[in-house]
Amino acid sequence: MKNHDAAHKRILGRLNGWSLSLAVLVLVAGWLGFPVPGLAEDAPGAAVAYREVPGIGSRNVVWLVAQVHLILGGFVLGVPIFAWICHIIAVRTKEPRYFRLAKEFTNLLTAAFEMTAMLGATLLFVLMVLYPKVVSYMTGIFLPTYYIYIALFIASTTTLYLYWSGFETMKERQGWHLFLGFLLNVIALFIMIVPNAWASFQASPVVLTEGMGPWEKAFTAMQNPTWWPLNVHRLIANVVLGGFICGAYAAIKYLGAQTQEEREHYDWMGYVGNFIGIFGLLPLPFAGYWLMMEVYRYNQQMGITLMGGFLSWLFILQAVLIGAMFLQSNFYFWLGLAYRTEGGEKYKKPIIAMLVALLICFGVWLTPHSLVASLQEARAMGGTHHPVLGVFGVMSAKMTAVNLMLLITFGSFLMYWRADKVETVRWAKAGRIAQLVLFAAAALYIIWAGVYGYFVPAIFRVYVLSVSQVLVVLGAYIVATIIAVLSMRNAKKIPLHWGRMPVRSQHMLILNAVVVILTMALMGYARSSSRVHWHVYGVLEDTSPYAYSPALAHAGSFMSLSTFIVLVLVAFIFWVVSSAVRRPAFSLQYFFVAPFLWWLTSLFDKGAASVSQVAQRPRYFGKAAATAFGFLFAFAFLAFQVPQTASLAPKHETFDPSLVKTQTDLVEMGQKIFFSKGQCALCHSIGPSEAARCPDLKGIGAKLTKEFLYESLTQPEAFTYLDYRHEGPPKQYPARMPHINRPPVGLSEPELLAVIAFVQSLGGEVTVRLEELKAAAMTAAAARAS
Amino acid sequence: MEMESITPFLVVAVSLVGALLIVVTRRWPDIREGCSVVAGIAKFLLVLTLVPAVLDGKTISYTLWSLAPGVPVLAFRVDALGLLFAATASFLWILTTVYSIGYMRSLQEHAQTRYYFCFALTMSATMGVAFASNLVTLYLFYELISFATYPLVAHKETDEAFDKGNKYVFYLLMTSKGLLLASFMTYALSGTFDFKPNGVFSTDANRTLLMITYVLFLIGIGKAAIMPFHAWLPAAMVAPTPVSALLHAVAVVNTGIFCVLRIMFHVFGVELMKELNLGFMTAVLASVTIIMASLYALTKDNLKALLAYSTIGQLSYMVLGGALLTPADMASGIIHIANHALGKITLFLCAGSIYVASHKTKVSELNGIAKRMPFTMAAFAIGALSLIAIPPLGGFISKWYLTLGVIEAEQYPIIGVLVASTILNACYFIPIVYAAFFKDLPPGEKAERQESPVAMIVPLVLTAIGVVVSFFTPSVFLDLAKLIVGEVR
Q1: Which residues does chain A have within 8 Å of residue B162's beta carbon, measured at their own beta carbons?
Q2: Residues 52-71 of B with CB under 8 A from A
Q3: What pLDDT, in 10s, does the model give residues B161-213?
Q4: What is the ipTM of this complex?
Q5: Among residues A402, A404, A414, A429, which one has the least CA distance to residue A481?
Q6: What is the pTM of this model?
């Protein structure tokens, strides 16, 4: 071991030196290149807007690579959190099994990190080649953050290596080792939030003015409205992913265990993985809710596209997935109560009650808002809403259902937590009653708020009732946990019987991993599709043949396919790392690629032995794989069964001024442009509307002159009301008027005049003359000709 | 003139097929080794079929797979530079394979199937680098070489082998990320990954970013062993001797130098290199490496370690030749790939032969050894004198052209570097030759003939003859080198 330590120190010393030099080099490169961001708009790569991959389609390629990279990235960021939590527990409790778990999972990262990085490079490559227009635009804004990202990547690599090797070299310095784990997670967090800024900017871009310097521009763009909600959502999702994948790994090992000792260890590991997964799952819907709230605030139309538009059926599929995850996790807890604890039969009744409640909630959650119905069926129902079930299709019912499911799952966990303890405090019974009352009161409030939500305006439901439901659930978690912790102080422990869980419990763990990956793939599609035909919403239009959002059959198949690829890659990583740790001298000294290389070196050594091993492989792996892939197939099949609607990109209309013969023609043309090419109705309403982000234009023709209107369209910054309503709290993200005569809207002069005529017609006198229109048309034609 | 032909792909594929056959026939060692040799010969013959067309001024291309129209991912293009590299490597592969058979069998080494498989895979990847028509293909095959050679370096599977193998692969895989980044920057600045004779950048490309890209390339091509990215090469000496020969003369370091020349000539182009003064910067780096490596070599008693530092210095001659950007210098850099390969492979084959016959690894143990191993040590003397650049041996030709070019470029301080390094080369090679031939054997050792098996002696004698022949028929390499220089100027 001494030799290994010495070797480590040498390697560490070397690594520190190199990484530092590389980091410095990259940063210097960044600084040098900074004054002229030559990789941006003027780059020759941008001369072509798009390239097509024959046969497969460029979007499909980018979709798969990006999705697989992102999920593996989530795994790479989630596992250190998981490992670090285990490490803390190990240091606090001195239990070696937690230490072993932390080490085993940090080992995994070495291979996973390299694989994710290579996928990242592949993604960059395909994006640069296939979508140069987007890369060029984003680089023009985010170039400085690329340098930060590279520096973070190097820092993360170094810290990961130090933390990983610390399991051998820092046994006597646990404080420092834990600090390294903390540092690794902090850097990993930043590695996540920098690209999140790019992705969230695409969905909710903020206004960037021309005078901004590169750093100012990049940081302003980073601070867009959905950045932090996305960060929080993804961070929690990564914890869930890390936990559930750990659970699935443990399940496979448990199923293949040869000895009782192994079974006990992997049963326990599966429990810990599932616990951490559930721990993350409980706050996840709240983070999702926050994200959606910000999306609505930023742009009502995008929110509607997601929740009520063509993507609404996607959320039914999501409900199926999350519901399955809740059921599986609870089922696993219940099986644990039945098989690991003494006298588990006593839990039968509450478990059945909880199961029924969960199923009802699940049913409500996956009730669609409008049903697929033939004309006759629709007539018989009196519309596309079912007379009875229809009431469960709206948000109020769904929020109620999901909150109740969260409450029930927490109840399952509390039961399990208490199962191996006999409370010794005098007020134990009172405590249990208090918890029961708390849960009942919380459930009643949630149901009441859900029903009340049908009778109040949407804005009150979204901002008050839904939020209060969330707070009540969170409050119940906190209070119940405090009561449980206090009542279980000095409790008598009843030994749990690890290693007795049935096979089906392990399949639940495997399915949890499948479902969480699938859900991440689904959310990737949802986020991307919410931008409809925009690369950067409202700013950079997708003019490729793939500007449409594909229907759910296509999307569902791709979600299943990317989940399949991720599962295969993760299984591969587990497999090679399991091989590598059999050779301590090797696994200790080798860095990221070690497992792959070791696998390569051992390829032919085994010779005939490996052949017979394959022949004798127990069937458990095949069954586990069949469970996972059967679920994926079923999901893809389901995606084919729901209504198929693709969101097509709007047609680019051209308006011919020569067809305008009268003032009425002019106003009509303006109206068409207002609602189509001009995209004015994205933000402005005509008449009061809660949805509108910008001034209501009703009666505006009587208030503003033609010249003022022209200036407002072409120089919107000349005179701006940040809070145009002059009442109530100012909007958090005041929408800024774009230059209508510049891209992406880019109206021509005659089109501008037509819009002004239409706006004037809203309560005022139209003063735009036909002669003006003709003159503008001639000037425009001459300009085009020259 | 461009012509389409599948031959470049076949050259790459033939050793892949060989690798598969090696695995399939692993239970029958004679057939397995037969597959290695046949694949080597087939590859060399296929490369030879490309020579007439290239000497005719044609380039031969073949696209295996494009991600999108105009964006080839796996595409090959044979020009004079690639052909010179491929011809040298594929010829020496045959000899190294035959030598390996003698070495592995004599020492009854373990995991021979893996060994021959990785050997074949390395050769396939090397041909991929030689014929790569763009940066993406080059990068993929470049990385494949690192992966495929790692099991060869760590072949012994001892703690030391793993430790050194780790260092080897860590240096190569970490630095190659620079190559990847530089390739992306090249695409961003030029809109293409393809190699072009006069470079790919337009005149208005951002100068600062171009310089950064060039530095990233130099860092990224760790296989060229330019200091301070050289430490993997001495570490890799833990490998069996035929692998060292493969690393030093056939595949790995030559790949590094080839890539540097490719980047200089076909990504940046001679004009841009001159304009940005990148040649001068590279020449300074190479000069420092030449002197430092020679000084390090002087301090080494382990024969293979000494040869490793000698390689580091010799590689920088090639970089220096390319970087000075005069026709004579560029030609010298290019032909030194072949001349060094011949000389250095001879020396490594001799080191292996000494180890197999006498289990000696240190310079200080070689007194009088020529009395027992006359063929081996005669070949060693020829290889060593060639690398010092003594006529009538091949190494002299490259150094002659290098000196002419330096005078042409009026970079007189470089002549000082050349003179100093030649003296240093002589200082560490001549004492070995002298001790082997003129000193007495250590007490207790008899002066009876004790050479290695014939399978090992024949290749090293052939390469030594090659060193002599290359002096008398310099046009074999020189014509190709002139063709390359003509193409890129």
Answers
A1: 585-586, 589-590
A2: 67-71
A3: 877 887 788 788 888 888 998 999 999 889 889 999 889 998 888 888 899 89
A4: 0.80
A5: A414
A6: 0.80
